[in-house]
């Protein structure tokens, strides 16, 4: 007890235990079993009280009856072995009672009781299968130890006594039988009730050969074996588990039991006491006998001598060597544990930093989307005020057609004027007139095209080139051009009906498929300019504005703000916005113009942003090139410094050279700059746009290096570790895609609605061509609506609109950078997915670009179906 703690001690409630086993098993120091009263009471009687804390915590029980089988025709002595026989006082005695016959006096020697069997003439007749109860009477009957004894019947069938362990369990040792005997029938008899053994166990009763146990010391049976406390004794034998379980085997070492732990067919393992037991006669002996009892068999296996440990079998040198080895092993283990803990702590710190970084990114995505969308809408409202027809830099029709007919080429291959000498002009003009007459013959033209396509060396590029030349030649005869195209398409339908009609118009592999692309471009120019041009241009300007607001790597083309994960800048680049005051000369006056740039921009990127601001809304072809101008930083009257991407101040580390930025020149916010014509002697070069471009054996880089740098200065170890940790989980930066997508969502919706809206009738050319496809399907017996839908989708949305979405420079006089083109590719792919009839399924392994618009694609599909 203490001042603040009270220990609660249990009060003995002995009377709730109704039998000896439950009374002793609780090991209550105040309760014990009174053999006189047959009750569990508090400790008051010294002679008839069994205590649960004693050395032998066992109730009174009869262990054996000798002889177990006897003749009913003679009177003999019967001996009982009783466990935990209580000590009797002077006026107490024992007697044996056989059924209802008069009791016989009994003599007790230690734990063995002897008495006479009843006279034969007093025994009642024993008909077939009868038996009597035989009980041991004390002054109070021990009900928990009553014993059922039986005798041999007239037919000489062996019978064995059964000991009732409880009201629901009874143990019956099997009687001995001579070798070669056969069991005819085994049953149990209780109060004239017969129970067959097979009806209980569902198996016949069988006798097996007696088990065999070999001596502990098989070489010299008279010599004891040495036993070290804490070990086990191993006994070898044969047939140990044929008719015996571990619980039925009893092993003794001296006067104490050896706890049997394992028993299999050839081995018995028992655990002796920790302290050396005494002999059978309770005297201290150095050598103890080992006895094992298996049923009615008892084996004397030899003797055991406890090892005191005074004489070590291991030499002193070996002990020292073992101790030194153990010390080295322990030291190594400690070092490994310390290193592991250090690495684990470092990994845990890195993991927590990544978690904090993730949480910060997730929290900021929503706020960032709202803020950037507000800024974008403000910028777009200013742009919308300038857009109203002439504000959108549409290409003229001739340039538009040339860029679609001959993509990647500057200027059309055909010219109106023939640059020929006068001596040949008449001959060439006459030949061209004859060729024109042949091309105006539909039969010749169709046969001519089929003949060209049958040539093996007529490549896909050649087919597109020929189709565009024919389109330009027959442009003034659009009705004739349309008839020729329909005739060739009819032949194409007939070819694909035999193969797989759903694959028709999927690619541009024939002349007629390129002719169809050109025909759609001609017919939809007015619709494109009047209906879809403005939202498409606003989408392009919104993408360019958003991309330029974040860092863009001038070498790799990767950007922080993008929709394309392959063009995502997967590093956390520190940057800040800088407002430059640009001096713009307008006539004789110089006007200051504020322009927002980033301190991480290269000089070429700064010049492009300044030109975008000065020539806002003007066609790209009408403004000067950034390579033709120099950027001059002006500070005061005489402080003029020309800035460039690469000069003598560029930072070189190993085999890497970094492009110069405003941050490199330490240009402050609000600095005054001017664009001046580049002098002929200027050795400044523009920004390289090819990843991995080398200059004088040096690799150029801007924001991130295209490969790992093996040479890292020591003072940058910490920052590089942070960057490596960011690279370890690059997916944490995918939230930037979501931010960009949320900002551009309104402009993407406007373009898709302008293209697919069902509120206004489609262009006449589209209705005409779709009716032609319906007629072709009906003519060839194609009644699958999905096939016709695929034809219409491949001919208009996937053939014309996807081309316009990916290449706005086909329609507008603008420059499309690599970073803007990467965003347009994702939007074009979303348009393609919206036009397919198959169900749009996404999963964990789907590309990130498809996951971005997974929720919007079903809505876009509804627009396509209408």
Count the beta strands: 31
Give me the number of helical elements.
20
Spans of at least 5 consecutive residues whose pLDDT stays below 50 are 1-9, 128-157, 683-691, 709-717, 724-728
Structural class: alpha+beta
Strand content range:
15-25%
Can you give the helix content as a percent range? 25-40%
Multimer state: single chain
User: Whole-number average pLDDT?
Assistant: 79
Q: What does the largest sheet look like? A: 8 strands, mixed
Approximate shape: elongated
Q: How would you describe this structure to a colleague?
A:
With 866 residues, this protein is an alpha+beta fold. Helices cover 36% and strands 18% of the residues. The chain is built from 20 helices and 31 strands. The strands form seven sheets. It has an eight-stranded mixed β-sheet, with no helix packed on it. A six-stranded antiparallel β-sheet has the order 4-5-8-7-6-9, with no helix packed on it. The radius of gyration is 53 Å and the shape is elongated. It starts with 19 loop residues before the first helix and ends with a helix. 24% of the residues are buried. The N terminus is likely disordered.
């Amino acid at each position: 007890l203490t001042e603040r703690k009270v220990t609660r001690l249990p009060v003995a409630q002995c009377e709730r235990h109704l039998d000896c086993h439950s009374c002793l098993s609780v090991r209550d120091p105040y309760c014990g079993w009174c053999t006189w009263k047959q009750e569990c009471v508090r400790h008051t009687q010294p002679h008839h009280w069994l205590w649960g804390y004693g050395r032998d915590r066992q109730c009174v029980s009869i262990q054996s009856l000798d002889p177990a089988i006897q003749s009913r025709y003679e009177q003999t002595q019967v001996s009982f072995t009783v466990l935990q026989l209580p000590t009797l006082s002077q006026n107490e005695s024992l007697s044996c009672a056989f059924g209802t016959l008069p009791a016989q006096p009994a003599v007790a020697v230690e734990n063995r009781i002897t008495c006479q069997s009843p006279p034969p003439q007093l025994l009642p007749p024993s008909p077939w299968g009868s038996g009597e109860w035989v009980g041991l009477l004390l002054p109070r009957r021990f009900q928990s130890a009553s014993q059922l004894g039986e005798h041999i019947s007239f037919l000489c069938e062996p019978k064995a006594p059964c000991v009732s362990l409880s009201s629901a369990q009874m143990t019956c040792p099997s009687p001995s039988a001579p070798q070669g005997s056969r069991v005819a029938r085994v049953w149990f008899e209780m109060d004239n009730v017969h129970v067959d053994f097979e009806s209980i166990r569902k198996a016949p009763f069988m006798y097996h050969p007696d088990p065999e146990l070999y001596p502990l010391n098989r070489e010299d049976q008279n010599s004891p074996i040495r036993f070290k406390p804490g070990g086990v004794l191993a006994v070898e034998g044969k047939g140990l588990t044929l008719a015996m379980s571990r619980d039925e085997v009893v092993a003794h070492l001296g006067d104490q039991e050896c706890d049997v732990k394992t028993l299999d067919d050839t081995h018995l393992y028992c655990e002796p006491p920790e302290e050396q037991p005494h002999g059978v006669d309770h005297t201290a002996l150095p050598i103890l006998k080992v006895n094992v009892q298996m049923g009615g068999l008892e084996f004397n296996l030899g003797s055991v001598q406890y090892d005191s440990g005074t004489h070590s079998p291991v030499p002193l040198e070996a002990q020292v060597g073992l101790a030194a080895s153990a010390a080295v092993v322990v030291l190594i283990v400690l070092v490994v544990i310390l290193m592991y803990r250090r690495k684990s702590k470092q990994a845990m710190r890195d993991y927590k930093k990544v978690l904090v970084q993730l949480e910060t990114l997730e929290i900021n995505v929503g706020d960032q989307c709202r803020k950037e969308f507000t800024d974008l809408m403000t910028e777009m409202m200013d742009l919308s005020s300038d857009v109203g027809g002439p504000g959108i830099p549409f290409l003229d029709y001739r340039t538009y057609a040339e860029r679609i007919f001959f993509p990647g080429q500057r200027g059309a291959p055909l010219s109106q004027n023939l640059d020929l000498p006068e001596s040949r002009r008449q001959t060439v003009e006459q030949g061209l007139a004859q060729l024109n007459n042949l091309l105006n013959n539909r039969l010749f033209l169709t046969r001519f095209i089929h003949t060209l396509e049958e040539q093996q060396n007529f490549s896909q590029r050649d087919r597109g080139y020929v189709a565009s030349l024919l389109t330009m030649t027959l442009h003034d005869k659009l009705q004739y051009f349309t008839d020729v195209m329909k005739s060739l398409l009819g032949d194409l339908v007939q070819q694909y009906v035999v193969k797989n009609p759903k694959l028709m118009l999927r690619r541009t592999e024939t002349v007629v498929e390129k002719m169809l692309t050109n025909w759609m471009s001609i017919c939809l120019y007015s619709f494109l300019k009047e209906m879809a041009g403005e939202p498409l241009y606003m989408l392009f300007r919104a993408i360019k504005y958003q991309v330029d607001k974040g860092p863009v790597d001038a070498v790799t083309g990767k950007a922080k703000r993008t929709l394309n994960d392959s063009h995502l800048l997967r590093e956390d680049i520190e940057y800040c916005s800088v407002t430059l005051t640009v001096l713009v000369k307008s006539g004789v006056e110089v006007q200051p113009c504020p322009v927002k740039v980033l301190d991480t921009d290269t000089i070429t990127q700064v010049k492009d942003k300044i030109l975008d601001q000065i020539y806002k809304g003007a066609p790209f072809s009408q403004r000067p090139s950034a390579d033709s101008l120099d950027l001059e930083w002006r500070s005061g009257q005489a402080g003029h410094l020309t800035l460039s991407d690469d000069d003598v101040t560029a930072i070189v580390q190993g085999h890497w050279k970094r492009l110069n930025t405003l941050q490199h020149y330490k240009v402050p916010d609000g600095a005054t700059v001017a664009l001046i014509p580049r002098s002929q002697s200027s050795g400044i070069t523009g920004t390289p746009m090819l990843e991995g471009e080398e200059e004088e054996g040096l690799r150029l880089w801007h924001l991130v290096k295209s490969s790992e740098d093996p040479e890292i200065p020591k003072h940058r170890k910490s920052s590089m570790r942070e960057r490596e940790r960011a690279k370890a989980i690059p997916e944490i930066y995918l939230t930037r895609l979501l931010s960009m997508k949320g900002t551009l969502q309104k402009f993407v919706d406007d373009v898709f609605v302008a293209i697919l809206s069902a509120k206004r009738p489609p262009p006449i050319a589209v209705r005409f061509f779709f009716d032609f496809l319906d007629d072709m399907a009906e003519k060839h017996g194609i009644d699958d609506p999905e096939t016709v839908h695929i034809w219409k989708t491949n001919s208009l949305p996937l053939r014309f609109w996807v081309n316009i979405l990916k290449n706005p420079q086909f329609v507008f006089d603008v420059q499309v950078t690599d970073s803007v083109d990467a965003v347009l590719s994702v939007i074009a792919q979303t348009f393609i997915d919206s036009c397919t009839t198959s169900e749009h399924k996404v999963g964990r392994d789907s590309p990130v670009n498809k996951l971005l618009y997974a929720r919007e694609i079903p809505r876009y599909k509804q627009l396509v179906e209408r």
